[in-house]
Amino acid sequence: MQLLVVGAGEMGRWFARESGAGTVAFADRDPETAREAAAAIAGSRAVPLDTDETFDVVCHAVPMSSTPAAIEAHAGKATGAVVDVAGEMRDSVAALESHAESRACASFHPLFSASNAPGNVPSVVVRDGPAIGRLRSALEAAGNEVFETTVEEHDRAMETVQAKAHTAVLAYALAAEEIDPRFQTAFSEPLSELVERLTGDTPEVYAEIQARFDGSTPVADAAAEIAAADAETFVELYEEAGE
């Protein structure tokens, strides 16, 4: 299987390694990034972003806001299947439906950074085909749990597990004051560790998540409700949270 990965960053390289492809080509708007990716993975090469070559599979591994345009621009280079690892399903699946034409196509979302692989990978299969099956099998063979979902179920879940969770952790980080570590509790210490993990990644990625999924407002509203609660209301909220 010949694979073209559009977007030679962390997730593009992860997909190239896990895909089971026989040969891999990387294309990126920064040619040096494509060359670096090709040098890091044996048997791969860099190609221009506007290459007129065709490949069995084209994978789009670009920021979620850029994915629809990337699919429109590069889906035609695939002879077998078009996929993405965008992290959202509404816009990417719509682009696959519009621009992948009769090709097999699917959207995969690794719920982890490449350094934390393997993990869970929800997928929406728009049109199934042999290449999609091979990719799914390769990802599973690498230790990932690939499961099918719907656009609506996926994006609704991302509002909670990404946008709301990130908002809660960042809000704690911004509100917390520096303390002697010996004061840490069984609750604050894990939160501090989550802050370190979250703020050690690429902020632009999290900005896109916040822009795409509604999470910050509900968390802010809940925090305001807790802050304004009297003792009786607090107990009610506490019990509600545990249900």
Automatic annotation (TrEMBL):
SUPFAM superfamilies: 6-phosphogluconate dehydrogenase C-terminal domain-like, NAD(P)-binding Rossmann-fold domains
Matching InterPro entries: 6-PGluconate_DH-like_C_sf, NAD(P)-bd_dom_sf, Preph/Arog_dehydrog, Prephen_DH
A GO biological process held by the record: tyrosine biosynthetic process
Keyword Oxidoreductase: yes
Residue ranges of every copy of the Prephenate/arogenate dehydrogenase domain listed in the record: 1-243
Record's keyword terms, sorted: Oxidoreductase
GO MF annotations, alphabetized: NAD+ binding; prephenate dehydrogenase (NAD+) activity; prephenate dehydrogenase (NADP+) activity
Protein name: Prephenate dehydrogenase/arogenate dehydrogenase family protein
